[in-house]
Design a protein that fits this description.
The complex is a heterodimer of chains A (640) and B (265).
Chain A lengths: L7 H4 L19 E3 L2 H10 L2 E12 L8 E7 L4 E5 L5 H12 L7 E4 L15 H13 L3 E4 L2 H7 L3 E12 L5 E13 L9 H6 L11 E10 L13 H19 L3 H8 L8 E2 L5 E2 L4 H11 L5 H10 L3 E10 L7 E8 L5 E5 L8 H13 L6 E4 L18 H27 L8 E3 L2 E4 L2 E4 H8 L15 E6 L7 E10 L6 E11 L6 H21 L29 E5 L17 H17 L14 H16 L1
Parallel strand pairs in A: 4-5, 8-9, 14-15, 21-22
Antiparallel strand pairs in A: 1-9, 2-7, 3-4, 3-6, 7-8, 10-11, 12-20, 13-14, 13-19, 16-17, 17-18, 20-21
Helix pairs in contact in A: 7-8, 7-15, 11-12, 12-13, 14-15
Chain B lengths: L4 E4 L3 H10 L3 E4 L5 H6 L7 E4 L9 E4 L2 E5 L4 H6 L1 H6 L1 H8 L4 H6 L2 H7 L6 H7 L3 E4 L3 E3 H4 E3 L2 E2 L7 E7 L3 E8 L6 E10 L2 E7 L6 E2 L1 H9 L3 H5 L16 H20 L1
Parallel strand pairs in B: 1-3, 2-3
Antiparallel strand pairs in B: 4-5, 5-10, 6-7, 6-10, 8-9, 11-12, 12-13, 13-14
The chains are: A alpha+beta (640), B alpha+beta (265).
Chain lengths: 640, 265
């Protein structure tokens, strides 16, 4: 068996086996931000420096549906059709056509109507997609491949797998002013599409997260190992960034003898500082970080916690409460094509460049069209997931972007429809367009009115159109924005540890999220719940484990700990909505908030519960045995 | 899955005959272990002999001081049985906690016991409740039945027909579920029969075993404190990426004590 390098730490040792011997090292690149020397000097000048060493565990995205590809080639037409679940078919189409199969893009169609879970991993091109497409073309026969769960574990890109060493310098009053973060990223054996970028561009754009820390140095060393590649997984760099900041803040609270909420209060970016430019040049437009945290403290009854701790102690349990504040970056690459089309039967179609794979876009876009145009909700339908019908610009759905780019695109298309509609209505009503009003689906001029349906019908009849106007009321917009948005939130987890077994039970979970304007509370709550579930999975049960030879030991659901309903408590999800100022709907993404908030909240709570043992940190996942061992070790240390 | 011949056995004699005349036969009870094994091509029997249509292999009865559960009785039936609930509530609880509802409605006691999966619940019940495993050929005492990892005293061609549990004065079963699979990492059955106590453990070792030191201590004084300090050597126990042998040994101690606590409460 060939020697293997499995962890990033081991892979960087001089005598470690090289994944690519011709490259001479496993260090892919050393990527830095900031001035190392200045930050070192500032750290030396600090009243106190707090340090954390953290393992951000490798996890499997594990969508419910393994990968599937089917392809058919029509030799007479020279057309290739590929069916495969993906978060964005246009990219797959273009890579297949231009890069891999050297075909004209309009001869390649990718259809992806239903996708059983995205989570970032389904936004990627995988080798099997290309192989199946190639085989179908070469053989002239339909070809299908269906991955199973074992293949999902050993070939779907994994997430996270960072090792973070971070230091934060604070002044006499507990105000942080300098931050140094050194990150080792395990990229696996190859460079995946986005994996390399995640610490710096995914996480770095928001570090130091909700806090104002003027000086920052960031060192990222992506490292080759003999493992599955890592790439985007729900949160994609931001959960890791928030986790290290929150562990630092807890450490600072402990060092200064301050309550965990107080150290955060002293360091939050204040509302008066918005718009706030982050170190990597992104601009946070809005937020009420302190207010959001106060809401979470209030709804978790944080102040009265010690009484509850006592009640648990009487039952032999160690109760703990944990707090995490986080900030997100949502809606990256904010360009998307959206079309609103009036059908002959009176339906209105939203033809979206975004891809709905469980997010409920049909519900939300229908709501928006109903709100903007007064069209019956049930008459609106969503067309997406097929490069044959998608708008030319179709980036798909990832990074909590669809509310802003898709919703915003619907808004802009509807605005254009109303402008055009007023002109047509003016002619029908024998009035002037400037005197026509539009509200709730009705155009009015003085006492007469016509409906949107009347106008849509008239728009098809050249005789009823104002001079020179092209027929049709349909609109296509390419939504563009020059910024993304910055959701944020404060989560509080309350847990009990069984000190004899190390089992962590979640008793209560309060999530206060600022997702900007909430378009549909059921759907946003669903996103919050799902994100928290995945975050709790990372914190408590999920862990990809390799042995020293590079053999995957957690390759089935018998060995890989997917969280189950029994691992959760009720989640009390609330909003402190601060409308985004940088997009017309005021929305901020919601999809990845939960997995930013849950890991630090859970770890903080467990460490709080174990305070009497002098335990300051346990690396995730906080499995029963890990917690039990931490307790055993602290007992040994105390005895010694 | 590899190909195999499939047979319905009409009765036990028919099943025994088919076991004899086929090349590499396998009995099919609930199939909760066998079918996944076949699907993963980890076994390649020539013939599957399905016991599902043998009516005489199903049912529960109370006979004097014993509860008799026939081999093809599903876990769900045992869990829902008022006879079992009345006679040995710990056995009903054990059955009610096996796997998930789908497994409990397909899986059978005979299949579970014959498989001697180290993480199965029933072996702790069989051993802790001093059961006798009845086959088409003989009766085997629980103490002689589980011989190793997936190994039992059953001979080739032998078919379990029933498990005969002795009704205890009191008994309690508890298990610690595996963080990933949900199987028993440690499952402990503590049962008291007059002056005698049995402590049986599943999950922790290659097969279910009794902890004599705990039994002796409890026979002297049936109290949690009697077992609180009895440590189990980790050397012979199983370990995996979630639960090491050392941790399992510790859990045996905790769960045995908690069983006694539950019984004396």
């Amino acid at each position: 068996m060939l020697p293997a390098a499995v962890s990033s730490v081991d892979a960087l040792k001089a005598d470690s086996p090289k994944v690519w011997p011709e490259f001479g090292t496993n260090e892919v690149v050393h990527w830095e931000y900031g001035e190392a020397a200045k930050v070192e000097t500032l750290l030396r000048s600090a009243h106190r420096v707090v340090k954390v060493d953290l393992v951000n565990n490798r996890i499997a995205p594990a969508p419910m549906e393994p990968r599937v590809v089917a392809a058919k080639y029509d030799a007479a037409e020279g057309r290739l059709t590929v069916w495969s679940p993906t978060q964005g078919g246009r990219r797959i189409q273009m890579m297949l056509a231009r890069t891999l199969l050297k075909m004209a893009p309009d001869k390649v169609r990718v259809i992806s109507i239903d996708t059983g879970g995205g989570f970032g991993v389904r936004s990627k091109m995988f080798p099997e997609t290309a192989m199946v497409a190639y085989a179908a073309r070469q053989l002239g026969r339909p070809v299908k491949w269906l991955g199973d769960r074992a293949e999902t574990f050993v070939s779907d890109y994994h997430g996270r797998d960072q090792i973070n060493h971070a230091q934060m310098g604070l002044d006499r009053d507990g105000k942080a002013f300098v931050l140094k973060v050194e990150t080792l990223l395990n990229v696996g054996a190859y460079l995946s599409e986005n994996g390399l970028r995640l610490p710096m561009e995914g996480g770095g754009r928001i570090i130091p997260c909700g806090y104002h820390i003027p000086d920052f140095y960031f060192s990222v060393k992506p490292t080759f190992t003999n493992t599955v590649c890592t790439d985007t997984y729900r949160g994609a760099g931001r959960p890791e960034a928030n986790y290290l900041m929150e562990r630092l803040m807890d450490k600072a609270a402990e060092t200064y003898g301050l309550p965990r909420e107080e150290i955060r209060r002293r360091n939050f970016i204040k509302p008066s500082q918005f718009p706030y430019k982050t170190h990597l040049g992104f601009v946070i437009d809005s937020g009420d970080f302190a207010g959001t945290m106060e809401m979470a403290l209030e709804h978790s009854n944080w102040a009265a916690f010690e009484e509850r701790r006592g009640r648990s102690a009487a039952r032999g349990k160690l109760r703990g409460i944990g707090l995490a504040f986080f900030i997100e970056g949502a809606g990256s690459r904010p360009v998307e094509g959206m079309r609103v089309r009036f059908e002959d039967n009176g339906d209105v179609s939203v033809i979206a460049g975004t891809y709905s794979h469980g997010q409920g876009h049909a519900t939300v876009y229908s709501q928006l069209v109903h709100e903007f145009l007064g069209v019956d909700y049930d008459k609106v339908r969503l067309i997406n997931g097929d490069t044959g019908t998608s708008p030319e610009v179709s980036n798909g759905t990832f990074g909590s972007r669809s509310s802003m780019v898709g919703g915003g695109g619907v808004k802009r298309a509807c605005d254009a429809i109303i402008v055009k509609g007023k002109k047509i209505a003016a002619r029908l009503l024998q009035s002037d367009a400037t005197r026509v009003t539009f509200e709730a689906g009705v155009f009015r001029a003085q006492t007469s009115s016509v409906t949107m349906a009347d106008v849509a019908a008239a728009a098809r009849d050249p005789n009823k159109l104002p001079d020179g106007m092209a027929p049709g009321l349909d609109e296509y917009v390419v939504y563009e924005n020059d910024t993304e948005n910055f959701p944020n939130g404060a989560h509080v987890a309350e847990i009990e540890v069984d000190p004899e077994t190390g089992v962590v039970e979640i008793l209560n979970y309060v999530a206060v999220d600022d997702c900007g304007v909430v378009l549909n509370p059921f759907i946003v709550h669903g996103q919050i719940y799902g994100g928290i579930a995945q975050g709790i999975g990372q914190a408590l049960t999920e862990n990809i484990v390799y042995d020293a030879e590079g053999q995957l030991l957690s390759g089935t659901f018998m060995d890989y700990g997917m969280p189950r309903a029994g691992h959760f408590s009720h989640i009390d999800a609330r909003f402190n909505a601060m409308p985004a100022k940088t997009n017309e709907l005021g929305v901020k993404g919601a999809g990845e908030a939960g997995c930013c908030g849950a890991p630090p909240a859970i770890v903080s709570a467990v460490v709080d519960a174990l305070g009497s043992y002098g335990i300051k940190h346990i690396d995730m996942p906080l499995s029963p045995e890990r917690v039990w061992r931490a307790i055993q070790e602290s007992r040994v240390n105390k005895a010694a | 899955m590899h190909n195999f011949n499939y047979h319905h056995a009409a009765d036990i004699a028919d099943a025994a005959l088919k076991l004899k005349v086929t090349v590499e036969p396998k009995l099919l009870a609930g199939g909760m272990t066998l079918l996944p094994t076949l699907k993963n091509r980890l076994a390649q029997p020539s013939d599957l002999i399905d016991l599902a249509k043998i009516d005489g292999l199903k049912g529960i009865s109370v006979e004097g001081k014993e509860v008799v559960v026939k081999a093809m009785t599903t876990h769900a039936v045992v869990a829902a049985s008022t006879d079992v609930r009345k006679a040995i509530p710990a056995l009903a609880d054990l059955a009610d906690g096996i796997g998930d509802p789908a497994v409990r409605h397909r899986g059978t006691i005979g299949g579970s016991v014959a498989n001697s999966d180290p993480a199965a619940d029933y072996p702790a019940g069989v051993l802790g409740l001093d059961a006798v495993v009845e086959t088409n050929e003989r009766k085997i005492n629980a103490d002689d039945f589980f011989t190793g990892l997936f190994e039992t005293a059953l001979k080739p061609g032998e078919i379990i027909t029933a498990v005969r549990f002795k009704i205890p004065d009191r008994a309690h079963y508890m298990k610690f579920r595996h963080p990933a699979s949900g199987y028993a990492v440690v499952g402990v059955m503590v049962a008291q029969y007059g002056a005698k106590v049995r402590v049986a453990v599943t999950g922790a070792g290659p097969n279910a075993f009794r902890v004599r030191a705990m039994e002796d201590a409890l026979e002297k004084s049936f109290a949690p404190a009697s077992v609180a300090n009895i440590k189990i050597p980790a050397g012979d126990l199983l370990g995996d990426i979630h639960c090491s042998a050392e941790y399992r040994a510790h859990l045996v101690n905790v769960y045995a004590r908690r069983c006694v606590e539950a019984l004396v409460k």
